[in-house]
Amino acid sequence: MKSETSTPTGEFVLRLSATRRGARLARLFAVHQLHDWGVTGPGGEAVELVVAELASNAVSHGRVPGRDFEVRMRRGGDHVRVEVADARGDRRPSPRAEPDEGGYGLLLVAALASAWGVSDRCVGKTVWATVPLTGQNRVVPDQSAAL
Predict the structure, then answer these.
(1) How far is the C-alpha of 61 from the C-alpha of 20, rounded, in Å?
(2) What pLDDT sits at residue 101?
(3) Between the chain's N and C termini, which has fewer beta carbons within 10 Å?
(4) What is the DSSP letter of 78?
(5) Residue 40: other Cβ atoms inside 10 A
């Protein structure tokens, strides 16, 4: 008889203040959740970096005074989908070939994710990325819709 190991799945949702402290907390709580799911090693580090970059962008470029941002992670069998929502729908991310003043965050997200894109919300937008836990597949961002 063939034995199968089950992969933990689940969802993690966190709402934080749109501040630098909120972005740091998003990364720390995400790491804690990844450990609870048993996601470690290079795959876990890739998810951690994607959360950190998207949370940082949300508080730097998507901040609306008095509004929070939201981090959502969904664990699938061989990937983690990261979604970070902010209140500024008018400022959509686009990676540049030659970033100015830093600006390497979305290039890093694109390098670590198998897919990423932006979805509209009633208020604001959601930037999402699907991060594989094994292997790396770089793709062109999908700006049309979330998976």
Answers:
(1) 12
(2) 64
(3) N
(4) S
(5) 12
Return the minimum-mean-pLDDT range out of 16-30, 61-75, 96-110. 96-110
Q: Which amino acid is at 144?
A: S
Helix (H, G, I), strand (E, B) or coil at 138: coil
- The backbone region for 62, taken as left when phi is positive above 0, alpha when psi lies in -120 to 50, beta otherwise, is alpha
123 close to 89: Cβ distance less than 8 angstroms: yes
- Give the residue from 70, 61, 54 showing the smallest Cα distance to 116: 54
Q: 93: closest CA among 64, 136, 66, 58? A: 58
Q: What is the pLDDT of residue 100?
A: 62
Position 4 scores a pLDDT of 45
Return all residues near 123 (Cβ < 8 A) that are at least 6 apart: 67, 87, 89
The band of 95, judged by pLDDT with boundaries at 50, 70 and 90, is: low
The full 3-state SS of 83-125, as one line of letters, equals: EEEECCCCCCCCCCCCCCCCCCHHHHHHHHCCEEEEEECCCCE
Task: Report the candidate in 47, 74, 53 with the shortest Cα–Cα distance to residue 132.
Answer: 47
| Threshold 0.85, pTM exceeds | no
Q: Which two tokens stand for residue 2?
A: 């063939």
